[in-house]
Specification:
The structure is a homodimer. By secondary structure, chain A is of the alpha/beta class. Chain A contains 13 helices and 26 strands. The radius of gyration of chain A is 23 Å and the shape is elongated. The N and C termini of chain A lie far apart (about 65 Å). Strand 26 of chain A pairs parallel with strand 8 of chain B, so a sheet runs across the interface.
Chain lengths: ~450, ~450
Amino acid sequence: MKKEGTNKPKVVIIGGGFGGLEAAKALKDKPVEVTLVDKKNHHTFQPLLYQVATAVLSPGQIASPIRRILRRAPNVEVLLGEVTGFDLDRRTVLLKDDLSIDFDYLIVAAGARHAYFGHDEWENDAPGLKTIEDALEIRRRVLLAFELAERDAMRKGTHEPLNFVVIGGGATGVELAGAIAGIARQALAKDFKAIDTRSAKVMLLEGADRILNSYSEKLSERARKDLEDLGVEVRLNSFVTDIRPGEVKVGDEWIDSSVVVWASGVAASPLGAMLGAETDRAGRVLVDDDLSVKGRPNVFVIGDMARVENEDGSLVPGVAPAAMQMAWSAAKNILGDIRGEARTPFRYKDKGSMATIGRNKAIVEVGRFKMGGFLAWMAWLVLHIVMLIGFRNRLFVLSEWIWAYFTRERTARLITGDAEDLKDALQFITAKPGRAESEKASRSKVA
Amino acid sequence: MKKEGTNKPKVVIIGGGFGGLEAAKALKDKPVEVTLVDKKNHHTFQPLLYQVATAVLSPGQIASPIRRILRRAPNVEVLLGEVTGFDLDRRTVLLKDDLSIDFDYLIVAAGARHAYFGHDEWENDAPGLKTIEDALEIRRRVLLAFELAERDAMRKGTHEPLNFVVIGGGATGVELAGAIAGIARQALAKDFKAIDTRSAKVMLLEGADRILNSYSEKLSERARKDLEDLGVEVRLNSFVTDIRPGEVKVGDEWIDSSVVVWASGVAASPLGAMLGAETDRAGRVLVDDDLSVKGRPNVFVIGDMARVENEDGSLVPGVAPAAMQMAWSAAKNILGDIRGEARTPFRYKDKGSMATIGRNKAIVEVGRFKMGGFLAWMAWLVLHIVMLIGFRNRLFVLSEWIWAYFTRERTARLITGDAEDLKDALQFITAKPGRAESEKASRSKVA
């Protein structure tokens, strides 16, 4: 059933994100045998995860099975598995379930997770957004908050204020805050009869003195104004010092919160440390200029896991285009090795960046060119549709967007999970210290 | 925020399935105040659940938020809550979280779950299909089985046979078996490189001497042949006597199984017993001919929870049209009460039934009219598209079906869940007694 082993060099790629997938594509039909390992069976189009978290898109629309994507690459095999360690001297990757896999070349592209700056205990109260599961959990909490407010309003004639707090004013935080405001202001307004969803508050907390600080100051300011037009309260210079159920502490002030989302800071996959390589504080591997690990020319680290400096000393950002460029570079150097050519150093080409803020609003910056508003938003839409993997996903996501634009509805509004889970989720809203007593009040009737 | 209480009679509906939703619609704009309680926020279109379980459709495409559906019914409120009991003398429904709700009329429409005939311990090894969560769990297991076989094939050059066992030859079992065969034969065939997914076996076990035994013998036989054409092995007169991880016992014979799905027998919601009413062995409430509970004329039980006999002594089946007809009857009698009119007894009108078997194959039976094959399949498609709630869902599901028909692909192929869950799921396949030793063999290399 299995093809006989060949003498072609074996390349193992870890991770089916933008970097890993692009490396596999670059090695397609080349004289190597490739195995791509991922602990999920699907590639996730992370730039649109916030739309799953805010009920615009369904998970299946931004995720594709990895082996479907690589179906037509006969020299690439896909393996569902979780890496537990490396034996680089023996050129072996160790996997869960006592599995291992040998390589001649290794490309590690396992990406990053959100990080809590030494406060991992915050994760439960302020989930981040990196996977489909994360997005579904955030969607669940946001939708439940409205359901519970409706229930309170029916029972007591009033309800706790709905406060959504997004921590971190980077692209993800800005997109989430804008989209949550859109849900409250438009999508849900007609569906709730006891509460006015439009009275919900959305707050974006940013530690620095401006949001989106990888952009020019002018665009940052424009984005801030756009967010405020959408009903988001933007608080700058606001460091979060503590988080507990239902409350976020900024400096010395506790802020009531129905749902908190963490969009501040990421850390590279722990696989970087497992390689035994030198890493920076965010867990990124300090790679050589050909993206290989020092002393291990056959081991490459790419994407969000790699710490790469530009010529001006700035860091290559953790974005999809950078991961893809690194993948091309690593694949090229591996194929070059096989032909006996010298290594080529990696050089990042910044193609510009864009962030969407909400309906009709986005910002685009390409070198000195800056743009905001509707045209930037259209550019964002077109680029993301083009970047989506698979003709089918493009077609269906475009249809969903057109639908959502004209109806102003959010259609992927399922709260899934068992009733017991539901009860746990309620605790984020009802278990706030000091609120317990009123909850314990004797059985009160609805209407 | 809450409207002031009125003197209009209060109707509480429990359940947002076909029965409960239809009752709410029938009471829309009538002189009653309605509250619909469900523990989920969404209505699930159960007839298409098997398509979520087999990766054709996404959950959001067959489920709609209940409050969205009832948005334009000003006298209907929707409450997310779980019923824990009743105080019928005080006309109160008790809910979780110390909540309660008063009623003048109560319509209980909480449906049914799959039942294991006193073998609840089988549920973990043979999940049933009644909710979105059930469907995702089955999808996960089916897709994982192929992934793990691929992994085995890469590691050992061979793999355990892929055996999918569906227990129960009713409509759900037939649809699931046909759809799983479709996945193995067509949808996945090109995506796996080490295994031949077409060699997977799908077995349908039925205790009686024919499948779909609510249909005529001729159509049962036709359906059996259709299933066999699709590659399903149909075993009749096959009673399941035991289930354990990786194996199903039929009579005295243990059958190896990668994934087992339970589609045999349902039990009514335990809320029937909580009403203190007389129930049959399947937990259905024995209602009066106006569908009210004996001695409680203001409490109606409808849908799968009600045991209702036709004039010929046969039972009204647990299908959506029956639940909807009961909803209309209960609503009519409540409104009649208010006007001082006498009760009208419920009479079921059988509009016929249909089941789909697979690509181009279905059966339809309306009275003496019987039909199979492509035309029946088209009739099935049209009816289910029309029945789907919401123009948007109709549009998108139709698009998905057209896509799936011409590409022969299954696109909703995500395996979601954490890595630890994954490991648990693996156990269904690898923890089979007697298979453990080969698994414990020393670390073997891939390729």
